[in-house]
Amino acid sequence: MAVEWSVLVLTCQRGGCVSAFQRELEVRRLRGGLGPRPPPLLLAVEDPWASLGSGGATLNALLVAAEHLSARAGCTVVTSDVLKEAHILILHTGRDFSFDDCGRAFTCLPVEEPSAVAEALVCNLDSLLGTMTHRLCVGSPPGVWVCSTDMLLTMPSAPGINWDGLQGVRVIAVPGSQAYARNHGVYLTDEQGLVHNIIYKGTEAQIQQCAGPDGTVPLVCGVVFFSSDAAEQLLATHVIPPLDACTYMGLDSGAPPIQLSLFFDIVLSMARGVTEQDFVKGGGDTSVRNARSVLWAALHTFPLSMACISNASYDYMTTSASDHIRSLTLLPSSASHLFFCKTAHSHVDQPCLLEDGSSVTNCLLEGAVRLAAGSVIQHCHLQVHGCDGSDPKFSVHWMGSRVRWPWLGCGTHDYEICHALPLWGCLSGGAEDPGSCCPPQAQGPGHPWPVPPQEPGQIICHGCRPWPEFLQFHIPAAPQ
């Protein structure tokens, strides 16, 4: 079975190439990636402001979806009646991601799908679309699903959610360890499964209070369902200041920008253990407090329930290199509809040199390229000749068209991650081999990835060894 979506919305940041996102949706429709009956409406929606937040982006996307549904129904103005029988999926692409220029949603996974209608690279967006369409949302009543794309999410084929008589809003949770919850959000619920509060990076005592009999806690996994009635009420707030500033209509009218969180400004307004005074006061500046007051009045009467899916898994895509490598080299749980493989959409001259626990996606590896466990290479053409074959451990996510770096494959230390980027202007220097202009970046795997672009042709060393030692070991012939 599969959900037949009425509208599929993919949001992107301001200036985030909305036309490219629209093409990506159309490509997935053409290659059969949106099910046997794809949505009649595929919409890429740009945030009207920078740093709008997931809550503001949800309200703006809901408004755009309602406009298109109203137009298809022959209405000359937006009417919330079109939401009563609609099945809407909103996917948020979120913020920039250090390890992929296209963001977490389009991060490639080491997956091949032989049974797919058309062969193509599989990215996190494809995984989430499959999870939502064929697993998690099957059997749900009309309403609006909102899903983040900043995590790897797996669900069993039959999640076992009871949708009978659902009213209000339901959040989806995944069981996780209390140690993992220290850096994430968890739900505090009562015996009936109603949410009392959302604890983010709580104390040990707060997290323990959320634990079930087996010691696990319900992790916030970035997925929430609004019934059609709740979605109508949320949509109605788009004309009320200051929430009008979350939509493109507010942009047109000159309303000052406002930033809202989906979970801590919208969903939390329905939690039974939070008072109106505490909720409104926790809003920071005056505009957010006013927005919270409007949201409380509109949504607080709706019950907020939780469904915690056993045998599901959630892995937030952090800015840690070691976390990212672990996500791409460890097999997903048995609940996943995808299966990670060591070599995906690649040709490798000597596959025997790839250790178990390494990952190669969309690559051509020529010569004695040896990968140790915990190594990831994507989108590369590597040629390695004349090395001794000692074990490297590195991650390369973009290397241009052709790369010949003799030090790759010659014993990179385990605590270093090498990352090649086409930094500003480095591909326009007219070199005979454009890919050779891409400078390597080396960094300790536990350090956050460097954000600001460096000068073209510069080699950057972060969290590893002193400059002389790094250069002498890796690039003996490098200029000073």
Task: Write the topology of this structure.
Layout: E1 7-12, H1 18-30, E2 41-46, H2 53-72, E3 87-92, H3 124-136, E4 143-148, E5 151-154, E6 169-176, H4 178-181, E7 185-189, E8 195-200, H5 204-209, E9 217-227, H6 228-236, H7 248-253, H8 262-266, H9 276-281, H10 286-299, E10 304-308, E11 313-316, H11 321-329, E12 343-344, E13 347-348, E14 359-361, E15 364-367, E16 376-378, E17 381-384, E18 395-396, E19 417-420, E20 440-443, E21 460-462, H12 467-474
Parallel strand pairs: 1-2, 1-3, 3-4, 6-10, 12-14, 13-15, 14-16, 15-17, 16-18, 20-21
Antiparallel strand pairs: 4-9, 5-11, 6-9, 7-8, 19-20
GO molecular function, one term: fucokinase activity
Pfam families: Fucose_pyrophosphorylase
Protein name: GDP-fucose pyrophosphorylase domain-containing protein
Task: Give descriptors for this structure.
single chain, 480 residues, alpha/beta, 2 domains, seven-stranded mixed β-sheet, four-stranded parallel β-sheet, 12 helices
Can you put this structure into words, describing what you see?
This protein is of the alpha/beta class and 480 residues long. The chain folds into two domains: 7-316, no CATH class; 342-474. 24% of the residues lie in helices and 20% in strands. The protein has twelve helices and 21 strands. It has helices spanning 18-30, 53-72, 124-136, 178-181, 204-209, 228-236, 248-253, 262-266, 276-281, 286-299, 321-329, 467-474, and strands at 7-12, 41-46, 87-92, 143-148, 151-154, 169-176, 185-189, 195-200, 217-227, 304-308, 313-316, 343-344, 347-348, 359-361, 364-367, 376-378, 381-384, 395-396, 417-420, 440-443, 460-462. It has a seven-stranded mixed beta sheet, sandwiched between helices. The longest helix has 20 residues, at 53-72. The radius of gyration is 24 Å and the shape is globular. It starts with 6 loop residues before the first strand and ends in a 6-residue tail after the last helix.
